[in-house]
């Protein structure tokens, strides 16, 4: 038993070592991924319930590694955050999203469509963050209201420099950039904080959408959240909408827009542009 225990320990040690080596290898390839142009953005439409039209797109990062193929963010974002690589990569995301928003604007004259980017709190904490955003808007000749910045609720509230982070978001909001609170409801931060944050939009987490169907005759939690957000003058987007039933219930609860597989999965740029064209004909 003693031996077996020791073997277990060694096995554990080896696999830890292996994990570490994997991690180092991955970090090394991530360091060159940006200059090798291995990152790309997929875009997922956000549809306004009242009109059925595409109101915006969320830009979602993908890593196309020549050896491993297409890699999803849950596999590399944590490492990218930990290593600080999120700062240059996040800057590229903002620039690429603005460039896509420019192409959208050229295509859809009558219908302003925004593009939302996920911003990590490490990026937001950089001294030049506001400047990076303003420069990207200028380079793309893009009106500020075509860009939305998504910040995760819990991460923002727990950040070291909360006051200066909020000041930066305020500055961007003042020039017209839309500010969204992402994954809303998953944290423990109280709803009363909402009033103090410079936000325009709350994105309600998929978990609340999933609970909709089981709420029966009760007012689902999401119904109360939507009402409260509206009372604060905020727009509401529901995430992860997969069924028609969820969509219909969200309409009853006066949700503004929905995003999810029911409408479309995140798609490459060309396909996203096709979605908008189809929408224009409808
Ligand atoms: P998120 O910001 O909450 O993005 C929504 C995620 O839900 C996306 O996963 C999207 O593909 C997925 N999704 C959308 N609709 C549905 C649905 O109907 N059902 C289900 N099951 N899932 C749905 P994705 O693209 O894998 O991204 C995962 C997370 O990675 C994002 O969560 C975001 O936190 C992070 N991320 C993605 N791109 C970036 C980026 O450019 N920068 C940073 N900092 N984080 C990013
Ligand atoms: Ca998001
Ligand atoms: Ca989200
Ligand atoms: Ca999420």
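Q: What amino acid sequence fits the structure above?
A:
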């Amino acid at each position: 038993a003693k031996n077996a225990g020791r073997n277990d320990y060694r096995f554990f040690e080896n696999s830890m070592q292996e994990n570490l080596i994997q991690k180092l290898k991955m970090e090394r390839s991530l360091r060159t991924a940006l200059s090798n142009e291995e990152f790309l953005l997929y875009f997922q439409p956000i549809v306004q319930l009242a009109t059925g039209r595409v109101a915006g797109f969320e830009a979602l990062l993908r890593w196309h590694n020549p050896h491993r193929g297409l890699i999803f963010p849950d596999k590399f974002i944590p490492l990218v955050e930990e290593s600080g690589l999120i700062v240059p990569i996040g800057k590229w995301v903002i620039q690429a999203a603005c460039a896509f928003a420019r192409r959208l604007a050229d295509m859809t004259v009558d219908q302003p469509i925004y593009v939302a980017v996920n911003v990590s709190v490490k990026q937001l904490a950089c001294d030049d963050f506001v400047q990076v955003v303003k420069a990207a808007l200028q380079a793309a000749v893009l009106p500020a209201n075509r860009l939305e910045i998504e910040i995760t609720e819990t991460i923002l509230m727990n950040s070291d420099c909360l006051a200066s982070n909020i000041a930066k978001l305020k500055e961007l909001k003042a020039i017209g950039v839309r500010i969204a609170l992402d994954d809303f409801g998953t944290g423990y931060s109280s709803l009363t904080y909402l009033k103090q944050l410079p936000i325009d939009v709350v994105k309600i987490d998929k978990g609340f959408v999933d609970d909709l169907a089981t709420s029966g005759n009760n007012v689902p939690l999401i119904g109360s959240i939507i009402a409260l957000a509206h009372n604060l003058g905020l727009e509401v987007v529901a995430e992860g909408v997969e069924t028609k039933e969820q969509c219909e219930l969200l309409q009853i609860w006066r949700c503004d827009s929905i995003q999810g597989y029911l409408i479309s999965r995140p798609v490459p740029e060309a396909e996203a542009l096709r979605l908008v064209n189809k929408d224009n004909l409808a």
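Q: And what stands out in the fold?
A: The mean pLDDT is 90.
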